[in-house]
Amino acid sequence: MPPLKRHDGGSRASGRRAGCPAPYRHHRLPLHFVPQGAKLHFVTDSASTDGGLRERKRTATKLAIITAARILTAERGFSGYTVEELCENVGISRRTFFNYFPAKEDAVLGSPADEIPDDLAREFIARGAGSDPGTVSDSLLSDFVDFATEMMDRMVMSRDQMVQLKLAVAAEPRLLEKALRGSREAEDTFAGILSAREGLAPRDPRIQAALTLFTALGQRAGPAFFAPGNTRPYRSILTEAVNAMHEVIASSSPLTSPSPKDSE
């Protein structure tokens, strides 16, 4: 595949390859990171796109709690406010808060179950249609850049708030420990999204390789985007990282698998 250029975001096809599992409702994509590899799931403006009225209201309340908790944490530090102050900020009762989250740190971190907007997930999966069964679609990398960039564009918090939040999470052992525990679940779920798109099993080596690549690309692009003084758009930073990775891989020939005899 040639190096990436600006992609117009158009869908390649509306269907899915035969045998590809139907898109499921909740999706997660780990993109931004705090120290030691812990992943911080960010909230997007997605409440208006999913489910019926009751579900949309519940999603909107949950996102409001998460957003308020993160902004307060960024501004005051994790210990700088109480659950009561958080509830007052959102306009809910303590009882309502605990219907959504068991503790304040859970509200700050969100969860791997915080869904990517359905329209983005469906489009990302649909763009994998049309390729031959058993193969990886040739637009996977460019579609990932479009997908990740749109997620960033929909992020509720400002860049400055996100930077302060990441620093607050890194400084709080309880938050960091929970963030680390959520990483594996988030990766497994995105493997399921890739599986639905490519028509391959979640544990297929190609799906796992793509997951590893996307995680590494996010680890590189996220900190660069949030770095103080950065003026480059996220798409530019992520595309540069993708093209650098592509150049390294394309410069080498495929390796020959060792025979069972060689492995002895």
UniProtKB/TrEMBL annotation:
A molecular function annotated in GO for this UniProt entry is:
DNA-binding transcription factor activity
User: What InterPro entries does this protein's entry cite?
Assistant: DNA-bd_HTH_TetR-type_CS (IPR023772), Homeodomain-like_sf (IPR009057), HTH-type_TetR-like_transc_reg (IPR050109), HTH_TetR (IPR001647)
What segments bear the compositional bias annotation Basic and acidic residues?
1-10
Give one Pfam family: TetR_N
The region called Disordered is annotated at: 1-21
Name the PROSITE patterns for this protein.
HTH_TETR_1, HTH_TETR_2
List residues annotated as DNA-binding. Answer: 82-101
Superkingdom classification of source: Bacteria
HTH tetR-type domain location is: 59-119
| Protein keywords | DNA-binding, Transcription, Transcription regulation
Write down what this protein is called.
Answer: TetR family transcriptional regulator
Q: Which organism is it from?
A: Arthrobacter yangruifuii
Give the source lineage, highest ranks first: Bacteria, Bacillati, Actinomycetota, Actinomycetes, Micrococcales
